[in-house]
């Protein structure tokens, strides 16, 4: 029996991500970051491969940023690999969280964590023939902030994590305002990399 899935039927935004701390304390770093962040405004589930956060877009970005900043605050090299999505067919289990207000639960606590990061991200506005125009509009906006350069299959951002996450969130939200019915954004982020210090 074939199910008929349609994009654009839900306002839920989700992010499935994995964090990779380059330390033998990796389990403690990950579990501590997940524990310290206020996740009361999102649906969240963690398994042995990744963590999934779902709810209103504003709260998904708030939680994901806060978790990453917690993971990197001790100075370890930590890599984040995540996929953000909006309009995914079949989203339903997190509907209750859409009623949450717009106050970011972690904004105040995360504000004190300053961290330089390097990011490669890619946008995929699905279901529209002029998707490249939507992508390039966001690249042009990013050039006014944390955009560094284009790389194969992605765009690079560098700077403070708060500014970089704002660029990512703005790009994602602007894509949601387009005619695309399903937005996907992939993000690879690195902090405290030894290569930034000139070592191999």
TrEMBL record:
This is Thiamine binding protein. The lineage of its organism: Bacteria, Bacillati, Bacillota, Bacilli, Bacillales. It comes from Cytobacillus firmus DS1. It holds the Pfam family Ykof. One of its GO terms (molecular function) is thiamine binding. Thiamine binds at residues 19, 51. Gene3D superfamilies: 3.30.70.930. Residues 12-91, 117-196 form the Thiamin/hydroxymethyl pyrimidine-binding YkoF putative domain. InterPro entries: HMP/thiamine-bd, MTH1187/YkoF-like, Thiamin/HMP-bd_put_YkoF.
């Amino acid at each position: 029996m074939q199910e008929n899935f349609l994009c654009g039927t839900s306002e839920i935004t989700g992010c499935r991500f994995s964090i990779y701390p380059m330390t033998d304390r990796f389990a403690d770093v990950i579990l501590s970051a997940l524990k310290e962040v206020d996740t009361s405004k999102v649906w969240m589930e963690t398994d042995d491969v990744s963590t999934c956060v779902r709810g209103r877009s504003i709260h998904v970005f708030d939680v994901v940023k806060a978790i990453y900043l917690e993971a990197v605050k001790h100075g370890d090299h930590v890599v984040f690999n995540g996929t953000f999505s909006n309009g995914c067919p079949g989203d339903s289990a997190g509907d209750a969280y859409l009623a949450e207000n717009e106050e970011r639960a972690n904004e105040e606590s995360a504000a004190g964590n300053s961290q330089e990061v390097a990011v490669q991200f890619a946008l995929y506005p699905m279901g529209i023939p002029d998707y490249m125009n939507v992508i390039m509009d966001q690249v042009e906006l990013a050039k006014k902030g944390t955009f560094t350069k284009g790389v194969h299959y992605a765009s690079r951002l560098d700077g403070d994590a708060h500014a970089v996450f704002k660029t990512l969130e703005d790009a994602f939200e602007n894509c949601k305002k387009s005619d695309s019915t399903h937005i996907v954004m992939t993000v690879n982020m690195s902090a405290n990399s030894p290569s930034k210090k000139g070592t191999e």
